[in-house]
Amino acid sequence: xxxxxxxxxxxxxxxxxxxxxxxxxxxxxxxxxxxxxxxxxxxxxxxxxxxxxxxxxxxxxxxxxxxxxxxxxxxxxxxxxxxxxxxxxxxxxxxxxxxxxxxxxxxxxxxxxxxxxxxxxxxxxxxxxxxxxxxxxxxxxxxxxxxxxxxxxxxxxxxxxxxxxxxxxxxxxxxxxxxxxxxxxxxxxxxxxx
Length: 194
Known about the structure:
The protein is mostly helical. It has helices at about 5-15, 25-30, 35-45, 55-70, 70-85, 90-115, 120, 140-155, 155-170, 175-190.
């Protein structure tokens, strides 16, 4: 067994996927004995830790991002990891709800931003957002998840609005940066394992 296959099997085992599992992307990396596989594994592992977020927060950010990206193996992994870190069913449901709500918000507000027509800012959005009013994970963390998903979805208006809210809530820029870092690495993992 070559080093690439070993790395892939270790990663798949950690994620809880059968070690024989392969996507076309994973197969190409393995066949080419890509040096990237070492980085890929380390990057995935780094989604579980942060100097500025606790393990439960890392898990919920990972879950929300996996849901946003409709990645079943990673949804299962981060759900289990979140539960192991003390996340309740309500916490987990909120991470899922955040991904869904932000999908609609990011499309809607990106449209408003792209068109830059005053008329569209005057028409009521008519998007229910009760989930944002009293989040079970707390206002600050819900904003952090919202920012991370908005960054993944590429909504400049939403990224700026959530980042501004977080700064006003007293969140450090390091905490914000790590949340987006985790979301970016979960997304990168999902390009190969899906």
